[in-house]
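Session log. Operator J.P. requested a structure for one protein chain; no other inputs attached. Running the standard single-chain path with token output.
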Amino acid sequence: MTTHDAPIGVFDSGLGGLSVLDAMRARLPSESMVYIADSGHAPYGEKTDAFIRQRSKAIADWFVARGAKIIVVACNTATTHAIRYLRDTLSIPIVGVEPGIKPAALATASGVVGVLATAATLRSDRLKTLIAEHETRCRFVCQAGHGLVEQIEQGNLNGAVIDDLLTRYLTPMAQAGADTVILGSTHFALLAPAIRRLFGERFALIETGTAVARRVDALLAEHGLAAQVHPGSGGRTEFFSTAGTARQREALLAVVAGLSTTTGAPWPVSYVEIAHALTEPQH
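Structure written below.
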């Protein structure tokens, strides 16, 4: 039976979902959370739809076995290709993410919005539907962020390669008149500081971590599952990785150490537990 103190399960194809976890920790400091970075199979954006569904179900089942009370699919690609299947086969609340097409369309003054996403997200019916609903309001300039996920998975959020890729992908958007860019992957939300450094305030950046945190908060209240508040203590966060190399696991630690919540306080990393989970492909 699910209890108030049960954890919230959060997963991504790798490290990108840490941007969502960061927002959740800021809003829900009393909640315990378990994060899985499926780095051994990243990036999902280059995988088949069937593979993405298989991996998402395997990870969700792992969370259920651990007694998770809510699952957050902190991956745009997995959300677009697997969340309906997960909701059809599991009984606990499941929250996904999707590119912020509507808020971007409302925010743009120029009428041009850039969309930086994975190839799988860009080809998804869900994204195409969202764009179709708002393309009378503005024009969307879409770009697959090839190579960015791989860099982030190595713990690289800055550097010459990141700068080159971002410049290559975002400059055409600026030239097209975009004043708003949707970071259509939770991985890409981690690059917001680098984008600011390269482009200043040229773009309003739209990410979904804050909206996901609000949705999780509302679901906890709706289902009576919010953690009991204990004075002086916060929820525990555990990190798991399917990474096959020490370098990949170290990258997770490095990104975690570099993130901070909106309170400005860095995440403590002394208790971070790295373990192999679901290392074998599911058939």
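Operator note: Residues 27 and 213 are 7 Å apart (CA to CA).
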